[in-house]
Design a protein that fits this description.
This protein is an alpha/beta fold. The protein contains 24 helices and 17 strands. Helix 16 runs antiparallel to helix 17. It is elongated and about 110 Å long. It starts with a helix and ends in a 16-residue tail after the last helix.
Length: 595
């Protein structure tokens, strides 16, 4: 059973199963025009991009997209109260069943798709939880004036929402199987200076999961509603169920009903009208029979649309002096344009630069360099001083490794050739790859994979060896197990303050296996950085496994090397320009020849 008063009192978080930009944008516009501080839509379940751009007022927002509900962060799953299913009819059952199973605080949802297989609708009806309502199939959704817009109901343009006065509380509930007719009725009622308490369309398929009777009972139990406007059709027995409830005094509020389809009685065989069940196969299913039966229990029912309008006119009008002025917000909506780029790192605010939410001058005064760099690379403020301190250490440790490595050599050669700073620096940076500087990210991939898939360290070593590959983050030309790299010890100290250090534990277990084979196959600086940073991000920054995987995929871990070593390369460039030794050339003796 749908409880309108409970829905009205709840601050909702909505997840969309599938995407339809027009419908979703109309929901955000409704929320913005209602004066909400944040949109109700919090996530989209779909394939493709990681985000969908939608406007919140005049600014674009990135709504996160997850490939499945399983991949949603736990706090979001616990937060969701409503779903809107925008997937195709053939996927309706599986996607809705998944939402019912995995969203623990769900109150209900609506399904937009038409032509859902009848077998699927019936199965979904029996699967749904008793405390969760589902409006479907083929519904434009549910609207509660000034509070909630779930679906295309009321229109998909901001002007339509304004014209329908959907932000002012009212006393009239509006129902229909037809989505288009529901929106039309909203327009009719509000143009006659009445206001809507709530509205929904049951859906036009043969087996609506939320029956018309349930909607009437919801209106009966809603203190804000004292009038019901209903557009019915020939076919089916829903109106007779309603009559039974009226006779039992379970529904007492005034109902104005129009039953369409009297033209069907002029045909020799009953024709099929627009919706699946809009066909009268028996006498009681005809529009006229239903109308007379409803009239018999006191419903203001008619087969004349003109008379129907007159009946609606008789509903007491609201005080028009309470109409809200949305012109300022509409000006914002009308003038908005889509940005060429979306950015979450920095912006200009009144001439002042803002870095990840911090004013630059203020951040430079109160934040460490490690905090600023870590926040910018992560795309949000670091939560832990431990993470900031670790980033600061890594930037120092990686700043240079002598003039012998390929990146520094390339930078110096370019400098001696007379190239400018940027060209020389680029020459050095372009050498960074799998064999030089790219090992931190590859090591992070190893440790993340081993921990995520719960692979035993011995099995993981064998797995890599069978593939003919090396484990990045393991091995050093100079240091051995009996002569360890002091930098690694310094790095690993950061894991001691953690409650869990599963990536460090995995990396150290790998080291014990590899050093048993050869003394210099130790955990090196790259491997240590990757392991500690994974654990810090997981525990101190509360980053989920799926987000950690994303950081590995986008080479987040290599970014620290690139940034730090850029300083070293720049220093070598300046050094070569100061020394001014001229163009570098190799002698024939320094280049061997192979036939």
């Amino acid at each position: 059973m749908i409880n309108v008063q409970k829905i009205r009192k709840t601050n909702h978080s909505i997840v969309s199963l599938g995407t339809h930009p027009g419908i979703l944008q109309s929901m955000l516009d409704f929320d913005f025009l209602c004066g909400k501080k944040e949109p109700d839509l919090v996530a989209i379940i779909a394939t493709g991009r990681k985000y969908v751009r939608l406007f919140w007022g005049g600014n674009e927002r990135l709504v996160p997209v997850y490939q499945s509900i399983d991949l949603m962060p736990g706090h979001l799953k616990n937060k969701v109260t409503l779903f809107l299913n925008l997937t195709s009819g053939r996927r309706t059952l599986s996607s809705t069943a998944d939402a019912l199973l995995k969203l623990p605080h769900l109150l209900g949802g609506a399904i937009f798709a038409e032509n859902v297989p009848e077998r699927h609708s019936l199965e979904l009806y029996h699967q749904k939880r008793k405390d969760v309502f589902i409006i479907c199939p083929a519904t434009v959704g549910l609207m509660i004036s000034g509070h909630l817009k779930l679906g295309a109901i009321g229109g998909t343009q901001a002007d339509q929402l304004i014209d329908s006065h959907l932000f002012e509380s009212g006393n009239v509930a509006v129902f229909s199987s037809s989505g288009g007719m529901t929106n039309e009725l909203i327009q009719i009622v509000t143009r006659l200076h009445k206001r809507i308490s709530f509205s929904l369309s049951f859906g036009g398929d043969r087996f609506p999961i939320l029956s018309p009777v349930e909607a009437f009972l919801a209106a009966e139990n809603d203190a804000n509603t004292n009038q019901i406007v209903y557009f019915g059709e020939l076919g089916g027995y829903d109106e007779y169920d309603l009559i039974d409830l009226i006779q039992k005094k379970r529904i007492t509020k005034k109902i104005i009903a129009y039953i369409g389809g009297t033209i069907s009685e002029m045909f020799e065989t009953p024709p099929q009208f627009g919706h699946a069940k809009a066909m009268a196969e028996r006498g009681e299913e005809t529009a006229q029979a239903k109308t007379k039966a409803l009239q018999g229990v006191g419903v203001f029912a008619t087969n004349s649309f003109t008379e129907f309008i007159e009946l609606v006119k008789e509903i007491p009008s609201v005080d028009r002096s309470i109409e809200l002025d949305h012109e300022e917000k509409m000006q914002i909506i009308r003038s908005r344009t889509s940005a060429l780029f979306m950015n979450s790192i920095s912006r200009d605010v009144g001439g002042s630069v803002e870095i990840v939410g911090d004013e630059l001058l203020s951040a430079a005064s109160k934040r460490s360099y490690g905090h600023m760099v870590g926040s910018m690379l992560l795309g949000r403020q670091l939560r832990s001083s431990d993470t900031a301190e670790f980033v600061d250490l890594i930037l120092k440790l990686l700043v240079d490794h002598g003039p012998y490595v390929s990146g520094a050599v390339n930078t110096m050669i370019a400098a001696r050739a007379g190239k400018d700073l940027v060209s020389s620096l680029a020459s050095g940076l372009l050498t960074i790859g799998p064999r030089f500087g790219g090992a931190i990210n590859q090591a992070a991939s190893h440790w993340f994979e081993g921990v995520s898939e719960k692979i035993a360290p011995h099995d993981y070593v064998e797995q890599i060896a069978r593939g003919g590959n090396r484990i990045s983050g393991i091995g050093h030309r100079k240091y051995r197990i009996d002569a360890p790299d002091p930098r690694v010890g310094k790095i690993l100290q950061f894991s001691k303050g953690l409650t869990k250090h599963e990536h460090v534990d995995f990396a150290c277990a790998i080291e014990r296996i590899t050093t048993a084979k050869k003394g210099n196959l130790i955990l090196n600086v790259d491997g240590a950085i990757a392991a500690v940073l994974l654990d810090l991000l997981s525990e101190k920054e509360k980053i989920s496994r799926s987000k950690l995987k994303e950081l590995v995929d986008i080479e987040f871990f290599n970014a620290l090397f690139v940034l730090a070593r850029s300083v070293g390369f720049t220093a070598h460039y300046l050094d070569q320009r100061r020394l001014d030794e001229g163009l570098f050339r190799l002698s024939p003796k320094e280049v061997g020849y192979s036939k």
